[in-house]
Every structure is written in C-alpha cells, then in structure tokens.
Amino acid sequence: MTTTTTRTIGFIGTGIMGAPMAARLVKAGHQVRVWNRTKSKADSLETVGAEIVDNPEEAASDSDVVIVMLSSGPVCDEILLGSSGLLKAMQPDATLIVMSSIPVETARRQAEEAATHQIHYLDAPVSGGEQGAIDGSLAIMVGGDTTSFKAVEHLLLTLGRPVHVGPAGSGELAKLANQMIVANSIATVAEAILLAERGGANPERMLAALEGGFADSTILRIHGQRMIQENFTPGGPSKWQFKDTQTAMAFAGELGLDLPVSTLVNSLYEKLVAQGDGELDHSALIRQLKRHNV
Amino acid sequence: MTTTTTRTIGFIGTGIMGAPMAARLVKAGHQVRVWNRTKSKADSLETVGAEIVDNPEEAASDSDVVIVMLSSGPVCDEILLGSSGLLKAMQPDATLIVMSSIPVETARRQAEEAATHQIHYLDAPVSGGEQGAIDGSLAIMVGGDTTSFKAVEHLLLTLGRPVHVGPAGSGELAKLANQMIVANSIATVAEAILLAERGGANPERMLAALEGGFADSTILRIHGQRMIQENFTPGGPSKWQFKDTQTAMAFAGELGLDLPVSTLVNSLYEKLVAQGDGELDHSALIRQLKRHNV
C-alpha cells in the first residue's frame, strides 16, 4: 500500500453487496466512512476498521470519493438530491460513484446534477452477486468521462473488473443489456431442454455434450442444471428478472427500437410472474414454457 | 498403442471434416480404409498411411467399425441402403457410426435398418468445425445403446469429447438443440449490441464488460466481435443456420411442441436469407434486426 493511492472514501449503503465491498476497500488500506439507514447492518464493518457515521452527509463531507450502493433509483435520488443531499455535502472536485442498478435516464440526470456541484460522476453497476462482492471479482460496468474513470480505476479494481463503457448512463445501459442477455439465454436453454426431454434424449447428458462448443454459456452450465433438477431456490428471483427486462424494454421503446426476441422473453417472464412464480429463481421460466406445452 | 484397441475402420466421406478425422485415426494406430466419391480428396490420406479403396463396400466388408461423414441425410441413405449398400457389405456385429448431421427420424430409421443386418448403430454428429477436427477437440453427441457406445468410445476419444446422450437419434437431437441455442444466442447478442449502439454506449467495451459474468457465452465473445466489426465472412453461412433452425422447428412440430423464442428466431433467419444474406456468416442476423429498425 502506498500513501499516494490511499483515499478517503464515503460508502453509502452496506447491504448484502455493499458490506463486503466496503470491507475490501478498508482492507486495501483506504480510510472508509460508512453509512447505512439501518445502522446495525454497518456494525460488522467497524471491527474491520471502518468508521461508522450517523448520516450520509457526514460520510461525504471530507471524502475524495463517495460510493453509493443503495437499492433503487428513487432511494439514490432521495439521498443524493434535496436540501440536505449528498451532492451538497460533497467537496468540489470529489467523485461520486453510483454502483446501484438504476435506470439509464436517472443516471444521466444525476450526472448533470453532479456537474452543477463540480462533482465528477460515474455510474458503475455490478454483476456477480454476493460471492463476487466478497471475492472482489465483480463485473463493473462504468459510465462517465474517461478522466474521472482513470482517477478511481484503482479503487474499482479492489472490487472487481471495471470496464469503461461510455459516457454517463452507459454503465447502467450495459447492465440492462446484461440482464436482457441473461433472460433470453434462460429462455433459450429452457427450450433446448424441453426439446431434448420430449424428444427422448437425456437432457443432462445433452448439456454435458454441448459444453465447450458454440452453444456453451454460463447460463447453460448454471441455470441449465437448475432447470433439470427443478431447483428454483433463488439466486435471482423471477420478479426481479422481469423488472429488469421491463426496464430494458422501456428504454428500447424510448429509443424507438424494436427488439423482437427480448420483447417476447419479457412477455414470458410477465406470464411466469402472473402465474405466481415470481419468488422462484429466474431459471423457473422453463415452468412457463412447460405450462404452455401441456 | 496396444494391439487390443487397434481396429480396422472403414471411413466414408473425407471432406473438410472427414479428412482430418480419418488422419487422426490412422495416427492413433488404427488400420483405416478410406472411400470418397471424389477420389482425389482422399489422396492426401494415403501419404499418412490410410488405404484408399474404390467403393464404399470395399471399405466396409472387412471392418470392425464403419464411420460415415457424408454431407446430408439423403446422401447417407443412398450409401447405406439399397441393393449394393454399406449395410449389406458390413460384417454382422460390426458397428456403424454416422457422424453426419442428419434428421433425427433418418437416424432412427437407419438404426432400425442396421439392426435387421445385425449391425450396431450410433449417430454421432459433431460440433467444433474444421479446427476441432484437426485438433481432435470436437464435441461429439452420441445416440444409440450404451454397449455399442462403450465399445467404440476409445475411437471417438481420438476425435474429440464424446458424450452419450440417449438412444438412437439422440445425438442428432442434441445437435439440433445445439444449433437452436446458437441461433437464439446470436439473435440475443445482436439485440444487446443494437441497444448499446443506439443508447450511446461503446458496444465493444460493453461486450468486454460482460465477459466473465452471467451473460458470458461463446457466441458473445466470437460472434459479438464479428457483429461489431461487420465481419460476416463465414464461418457458418446463414442459409445453413436457417436450414438447421427449420429442421429443429419441424422436429418440435412433430412432437407437438411450441418453442416460441426459437420459432421467432427461425423466422428472423428466414427473412435474413430472403433478403439475400444467406451466404454471410450467421452472425449477420444483426443486419436483419437493423433493417427492422431503420
């Protein structure tokens, strides 16, 4: 650890993802000030060496960098904006990194708002789940200007694999595309398994045969197994997957873009959730395809 | 090489895939008799140590195993069946391995026909292309009975990674599922790239950001790059991809199975080919989605 790369970081939101991320930053030698609405969720970070503070502004006021890992766009807005908001509390020339998954338009609006306070803004949503947060192996999709990205890249490398995707909002856009690909891939693998089962092949052996070929994917290996074993303990609940595909479709709609396969898969998730399977893992989409083919 | 595993093998069809496969079997120490309709295509195998014969029956008559790597179901039928067919020429208790991609029903019918001649039958189509054939790294999807599979598994291991998927026809069924997943994955990655491009992100950086996450796949890495670079030199021509998805849809139809995503992607390939893009690589499906969104 060199002193030149040691930063004072405000960390807002220490839930399932935020807590292990903040802990990694502390262990990397940074001075981390943590705030969480439910303070008890931040307590474990004190033993690691983080400072627990009483309000978001306190976490922000003396920090070079503020990281936000809250649950949704409106919650982010509530903390960032408004009369006692984070943006007002932050020092000019500090950097705000929003790592929550929020709508593209919300990220773009927040970036504009940040600029009026001379705050650098990056949207940097992640993929990889709790284990990725613990291991520091998250896929981190970053939107914002290049200079701001370069200035904090070393911090993000502590949390995973940051890739700069484009201007503000692009990180969130990449996350949407990620979720869209996941949904379509689950539908695709489900249809292949159904074809194998009904056609008289052993679907588990079929998946094994396909590994390593052009049809191979993370979804084939992980979610394909879940479908065959009918193990639908989430993982990622179908209701969240549906929320993501809905958000992607709404954004495509704003662009005047018709994406026929994604539109169809979105409607399949809508039916799945309507049938009461929203709490099941998103691989449960195969149940909807089976109901469709009784 | 032990003498107990050395076999006399008839090899029928030494095209782009068949020639390097036959060469691997020769180099593994087996006695290989090769026949090809255009004899000159088999010539290079003579220098490796294969015996070139004048007709399929000669390749079959003294062989323990006959491997067929011809271009289509009807061509296979023509060589296998009929008055001077391979099945009549083969010794009882020999094994016929059809490694061509042919319809499931054709494989099942051939298996029944083979049984009447006391011939063991396996359908064992491959995925992995010419390079996989040269390297011996083909994905090999095998249908047939377990005893017959076990008896020739060591031969197939010389060619790649054989997986026994179920009874006769199951290998071809797995291959269909493989092609269906490939088609749907190409459509999915194309839609994600379109969303990124139109939404103002850098699609190449987006693909880089998605690698290693749940959205990762062979298609994302290989065909995603082709789409961004608009490099549509095949690879696998779209007209063949369309033939495969059509075959898959016809088979699903026979089972009374409605696979909505695959049906939609099949219709997208139909339009792509109708627009004159049949000779382009199957990743050119993004062109159809772009025309759809002018």
Structure description:
The structure is a homodimer of 294-residue chains. Helices cover 54% and strands 13% of the residues of chain A. A 6-stranded parallel β-sheet of chain A has the order 3-2-1-4-5-6, sandwiched between helices. In chain A, strands 7-8-9 form a 3-stranded mixed β-sheet. The longest helix of chain A has 30 residues, at 170-199. Chain A has helices at 18-27, 43-48, 56-61, 73-80, 86-89, 104-116, 129-135, 146-157, 170-199, 203-210, 218-229, 238-254, 260-277, 285-291, and strands spanning 8-12, 31-35, 51-52, 65-68, 95-98, 120-123, 126-127, 138-143, 160-166. The first copy, chain A, contains 14 helices and 9 strands. Chain A is elongated. By secondary structure, chain A is of the alpha/beta class. At the A-B interface, β8, β9, α9, α10 and α11 of A face β8, β9, α9, α10 and α11 of B.
- Cα gyration radius of chain A (Å): 21 Å
The oligomeric state of the chains shown is homodimer
Order of helices and strands of chain A: EHEHEHEHHEHEEHEHEHHHHHH
The main β sheet of chain A shows up as:
6 strands, parallel
| Terminal residue distance of chain A | 61 Å
Physical arrangement of strands within the biggest beta sheet of chain A: 3-2-1-4-5-6
What is the strand tally of chain A? 9
Task: Give the strand content of chain A.
Answer: 5-15%
Overall body shape of chain A: elongated
So how many helices of chain A?
14
What are the segments of chain A in which pLDDT stays under 50 over at least 5 consecutive residues?
Answer: none
Percentage of residues assigned to helices of chain A:
40-55%
**Global mean pLDDT of chain A:** 94
SS-based class of chain A: alpha/beta
